[in-house]
Amino acid sequence: MANQPHHIASWHCISKCITEGGSGFEKANGFSLYDFSSEISELGNYFKEGMACTSRIVMKAILSNYKDGFEGVGLIAHVGGSIGAAVAEIVNAHPHIRGINFDLPDVVARAPRYPDVTQLGIGSPPEQMEGIQFHQFGGDMFDAIPNADAIFMKVK
């Protein structure tokens, strides 16, 4: 993916990014990396798996150092959770927690099944989670987000 022409073009805008701020990808191509990844499925899959890999590494570090942080949480929703890797790590580490991965419908539609995690079918309402450990749910966070004891978002 790093050698893809749209990505290489981003590097030619690095001085503009330093002086003006913003994304080199957007400056070079006129659209965001997220939009690009959602339009070209092969690259989108690489992008999502790369993000999931990073999430798994980061979440293992968070979970090993933030041991008491999840006490009292029964249901956690990861808003903008892509294919669900981060919230799957949380529910694996804390079996008492049920998790919702919430992202755009086309993103969660491509999400994998996670081993050792009982999942509700994609797209079913979160209210049907009784006895279910993990749920992939599609929607738009600017319209509404699922109710939960804790909301989890990663920001740049």
From TrEMBL:
One of its GO terms (biological process) is methylation. Keywords: Methyltransferase, S-adenosyl-L-methionine, Transferase. Residues 11-154 form the O-methyltransferase C-terminal domain. Pfam families: Methyltransf_2. InterPro entries: COMT-like (IPR016461), COMT_C (IPR001077), SAM-dependent_MTases_sf (IPR029063). GO terms for molecular function: O-methyltransferase activity. This is O-methyltransferase C-terminal domain-containing protein. It comes from Malus domestica (Apple).
